[in-house]
Amino acid sequence: MRVVVGISGGIAAYKAALAIRELVKAGHDVHVVPTASALRFIGRPTLEALSRNPVTDEVFDDVAAVRHVALGQSADLIVILPATANTLAKLAHGLADDLLGTTVLASRAPLVIAPAMHTEMWEQPAVQANVRALAERGATIVGPVAGALTGADEGFGRMAEPADVVAAALEAAGRHSGALAGRSVVVSAGGTREPIDPVRFLGNRSSGAMGVALASAARAAGASVTLVGANLHVPVPSGVELVEVETTAQLREAMLERASADVVVMAAAVADYRVRGAVDEKRSKESWGEAPTIELELNPDILAELAGLPREGLLVGFGAETEADDDALVERGRAKLARKGADLLVLNRVGHDEGFGAVDTRVRVLDADGVVADASGQKASVARVIIECVAQRLASAGEEHQ
Ligand SMILES: Cc1cc2nc3c(=O)[nH]c(=O)nc-3n(C[C@H](O)[C@H](O)[C@H](O)COP(=O)(O)O)c2cc1C
Q1: Among 79, 172, 292, 374, who pairs with 288 as Cys (CB 3.0-4.6 Å)?
Q2: Is the residue at 177 inside a domain?
């Protein structure tokens, strides 16, 4: 993706270097457009070395390349950090008296702005009106946050952390043109708990990390995402709607309500059984006796139920198997896919040291014809591969309908 990084003349300008480095590391083609004031805070050599592209603030440099519009026209994303009160005012009023101004006006790309200034400046009605105007026109405003300001001051107005600005910027770009832009995705994640009494439950070792990584990847690809989370042990990504559930019955209800989404992913580890005769009062040794037995009854099969509904969207199931042999694992997966009636099945092997809670994982994505993807590594990167499979499948289904 071609990213224009605008920098204006605030004390936080040096932090733009971190954002540039992160974007370049992620494989983006980064072009830096500083204001003249920004170049008094951070040197051009730093910006050129980090971005690996020439840097100028001059509208009248390299005129044959019509630089004043070319950069904006070719940008997939513009992120301005820090944005001074002055630059906010200029952007809000459409001024184009420098290269950053012409670049923003010549672009249809998503615009992400991270303001930074002293609290008194930030609270000025003029500054607030400018920020509101930009937000109303579709710009994403990130921060500011509270913290240390220039000198000895502290307060609201500090620029959001560069990593947070980059994350918000990539998310905005995904919403605009990602492979799942305009799609709705529902992901179940975590492990359900089946109560024995008000304080005890039968549960499983799922942390929810894989489902959360999928929700995050779907969000980054532009989807509006709902995460139906059962007892998650990991934080929920920003921009994802969370519906909290505890039991399989609650998870089932939440998923059936949202079954018409474009993509439904059942990544949660759902208890196959619930406790028969769970009680509302805590069991004690006296009431339960010396060798109590817990009787179980079958829970509904939510994936099969979802597959049985009339639907136009894509249904993705997960299979966690302990099968050691690779071929046998895939065979089990194919049988499961056929039995459940989902469109895709993500198959992973779990054991005491694999799968649950682990950062690294290996999965195969199967459709009715066999393995369509094989991915291993961190759950975040594996999740991206799975979401790519989903997007490809949706795109080819769209072509078939045309
Ligand atoms: C040391 C120093 C720090 C500054 N920090 C900020 C700041 O954080 N935010 C801001 O809005 N202006 C800040 N300014 C003022 C801007 O540099 C000034 O308004 C300038 O005209 C901004 O130009 P630009 O928006 O074209 O980059 C600072 C000025 C100095 C000298």
Answers
A1: 292
A2: no
Q: How far is ligand 1, taken at its centre, from the CA of residue 9, in Å?
A: 5
Supply the residue whose CA is at minimum distance from atom 28 of ligand 1: 10
Domain's final residue, options 146, 172, 198: 172
Burial class (CB in 10 A: 0-12, 13-18, 19+), 238: exposed
Residue 288: CA count within 13 A, CB half-sphere: 14
Label the pairing between strands 263-266 and 273-275: unpaired
Q: Is residue 92 part of a domain?
A: yes
Alpha helices, DSSP H, located in 245-378: 248-257, 285-288, 302-308, 326-340
279: domain CATH number is 3.40.50.10300
Rg (CA), the chain: 26
**Cβ(130) to ligand 1 under 6 A?**
no
pLDDT at 5 over 90: yes
On whether both 202 and 331 belong to a single domain, the answer is yes
Query: Whole domain around residue 283: which residue ranges?
Result: 184-400
Average pLDDT estimate for 225-249:
94
Catalytic residue selected from 130, 204, 299, 348? 204
The answer, yes or no, to whether residue 74 has pLDDT greater than 50, is yes
In this structure, the answer to whether residues 271 and 383 fall within a common structural domain is yes
Query: Which protein residue's CA is at the shortest distance from atom 29 of ligand 1?
Result: 10
CA-nearest residue for atom 19, ligand 1, is 86
Q: Is 130 a catalytic residue?
A: no
Q: Identify which of 11, 90, 97, 128 to mutate to test ligand 1's pocket (most ligand atoms within 8 A of the CB).
A: 11
> Whole-prediction pTM value?
0.69
| Ligand 1 atom nearest residue 9's Cα | 27
Does the bond joining 82 to the residue before it have cis omega, within 30 degrees of 0?
yes
Is the same domain home to 145 and 289?
A: no
